[in-house]
Amino acid sequence: MFSLCSCIIFLFIKSEVQNSSPSSESTPLLREQSINSSEYRVENRSDVSWVDNLSPLGKRMVGCFLAMIAGIFYGSSFVPVFYIKDHGRRNGTIYTGASQFDLDYVFAHFSGIFLTSTVYFLLYCAAMKNNPKIYPAAIIPGFISGILWAIANCCWFIANHYLSAVVSFPIITAGPGFIAAVWGVLVFKEIKGLKNYLLLLVAFCIILAGSLSTAFSKV
């Protein structure tokens, strides 16, 4: 209930993304010239996406829908681990005697993510006719981000083991959302205005209340 209320409040928070023109004082993080091209010059390439042709309301609806899909996949990523652990405590199943320590499933979990990402990238290369858009400046930061994510995910496995998923999931999912929102307010200036600030504060208070209620319900 708390999650549903906070989700509805987030829909009313308006973000402002400004397209600033390049100047001598600012240098873009990813230059257009850094995109590799083997068939034609970068200047003649069109980077207009189908999203750019949507209305503001259409972009908002598509963004909310894709966020819900991503949340469903994100929330179900641990389901195989929980399924194996649950059936490992039962007799007469193929998982009888399976390990109850969550870190034992990290390698299989990460391997599945790596293989799936590889398949997605190959499909993307095929769709782009072997001419994908690759940003060299983002490769090293991407690897560093992946390492940090892997460390955090291992900690999440440990939290699931000692606190149970019912407690760890609300707390862990609320934390990154709060940090991302603060980052958007202070760094990217995407959220402005007293009304948006108040809505954001109310939404996070509701999320915090829901997380604490879930945590204390297991005590």
From TrEMBL:
Signal peptide: 1-19
GO CC annotation, single: membrane
Annotated keywords: Membrane, Signal, Transmembrane, Transmembrane helix
Coiled coil: none
Keyword Lyase: no
Membrane topology classification: Multi-pass membrane protein
Cited SUPFAM superfamilies: Multidrug resistance efflux transporter EmrE (SSF103481)
Compartments where located: Membrane
GO molecular function: carbohydrate transmembrane transporter activity
Location, primary (coarse class): membrane
Transmembrane segments: 62-85, 105-127, 134-159, 165-188, 197-216
Domain of life: Eukaryota
InterPro entries for this protein: EmrE-like, Sugar_transport, TMEM144
Family: Belongs to the TMEM144 family.
Name of the protein this chain belongs to: EamA domain-containing protein
Species of provenance: Micrurus lemniscatus lemniscatus
